[in-house]
From TrEMBL:
Its EC number is 2.6.1.16. It is found in: Cytoplasm. This is Glutamine--fructose-6-phosphate aminotransferase [isomerizing]. The gene is glmS. Coiled coil: none annotated. Residues 42-181, 214-359 form the SIS domain. The chain holds residues 240 to 608 of 608 of the full protein. The active site is at residue 364. GO terms for molecular function: carbohydrate derivative binding; glutamine-fructose-6-phosphate transaminase (isomerizing) activity.
Length: 369
């Protein structure tokens, strides 16, 4: 049942082209327009939405953070991401004009379920992005947008994460099309590019040998840092979470812009730092800014492992290792940049002789608060 792989996690990482492709399937008409009749929410109701709050936990919350950048860009609707357990016990600004999007692989996470119930009590419209048919959270929501990642067995989430980002992008593009804003015309172009992502993940998965070697050399490492900006920031946090869960190594993800506000004090000679580099065409000169962040930490002795697009030569002088990802437009990059980080955690866990699929103290679905 592991399909020839040693672990479910590895199998699921290699399933990711399908997780993305299948989640896109059937959500456009022949002309490439998004069609989400499955939501069974009236267009009027959706047009009325003036804010979106995403509620989720762990990896699903990082998918929500990635989605925030994209949905705000495409729809100009403010998007807030709340950890479900924090949302539940706060006084959130949510009302009849709010859309609360929950994200959950299992559909059974108690914290997320309670957040959804709370949102409904406050009058919000609730949509569940979920991977498990017939589970509780979709049942308790007004509508559901299923991710089609297939069953995820390994405790650490991988393919569900990519499918969650994909589903949120579909939702964001649909809302943009519905509202007919300045971006609506581009929605079809983004969908077209999204359809090219599975083949790019496939290509990337074929080049992970060096990541495995790096992981093997790092079996004794006690701390690893991850940096990113914009959509690369939640990816940095996801990379750190995977490493904590799977290899029991202290790891932290930062927004690279925060470095000089504190974390740079952690940099000492030999400190491994993964940097998720935005493509050179990313707005606001973010590429240049991240390259200079790499330069700053390298000057203080960090060992830099840089995840950069094919053809990006600017990173080379400051990188101890460069891991290449295929080119795609800036907002879609997380679907690629996270893959080497998943692989790194998997191989480091294996190198330490740990149980990849069943890390200590963790359960696949957390059904208690
Ligand atoms: C991380 C991981 C957890 C889950 C979180 C939410 O690898 O698996 O952080 O993402 O517990 O679970 P779901 O998506 O089932 O609500």
């Amino acid at each position: 049942e592991k399909g020839g792989y040693d672990t479910f996690m590895e199998k699921e990482i290699f399933d990711q082209p399908h997780a993305v492709g299948d989640t896109l399937l059937g959500r456009t008409d022949e002309a490439g327009h998004l069609v989400l009749d499955e939501l069974r929410i009236s267009e009027e109701q959706l047009k009325n939405v003036d804010r979106i709050t995403v509620v989720a936990c762990g990896t699903a919350a990082y998918a929500g953070m990635v989605a925030k950048y994209a949905i705000e860009h495409w729809t100009r609707i403010p998007v807030e991401v709340s950890l479900a357990h924090e949302f539940r016990y706060s006084d959130p600004i949510v009302n009849e004009r709010s859309l609360v999007v929950s994200i959950s692989q299992s559909g059974e996470t108690m914290d997320t379920l309670m957040a959804v119930k709370h949102a409904r009590e406050l009058g919000a419209l609730t949509i569940s992005v979920c991977n498990t048919h017939g589970s509780t959270i979709p049942r308790e929501s007004d509508a559901v947008l299923y991710t089609h990642a297939g069953p995820e067995i390994a405790v650490a989430s991988t393919k569900a994460f990519l499918a969650q980002i994909t589903a949120c992008y579909v939702l964001g593009l649909y809302l943009s099309q519905l509202r007919g804003g300045t971006f609506a015309d581009d929605a079809q172009a983004v969908m077209k590019e999204l359809h090219e992502v599975p083949a790019k993940i496939e290509e990337l998965l074929g080049t992970m040998g060096r990541v495995q070697e790096i992981a093997r050399f790092m079996a004794d490492t006690r701390s690893v840092l991850f940096l990113g900006r914009n959509v690369g920031f939640p990816i940095a946090m996801e990379g750190a979470l995977k490493l904590k869960e799977l290899a029991y190594i202290h790891a932290e993800g930062f927004a690279a812009g925060e470095l000089k506000h504190g974390p740079i004090a952690l940099i000492e000679p030999g400190q491994p730092v993964f940097v998720v580099v935005p493509g050179p065409d990313t707005p606001h000169e973010l590429h240049k800014k991240v390259v200079s962040n790499i330069q700053e930490i390298r000057a203080r002795g960090a060992r830099t492992i840089v995840i950069a697009q094919e053809g990006d030569e600017d990173v080379v002088p400051f990188a101890d290792e460069v891991i290449r990802v295929p080119r795609t437009s800036p907002l879609l990059q997380p679907l690629l940049t996270v893959v080497p980080l998943q692989m790194f955690a998997l191989h480091l866990s294996t190198a330490k002789g740990l149980d990849v699929d069943q890390p200590r103290n963790l359960a696949k679905s957390v059904t208690v608060e």
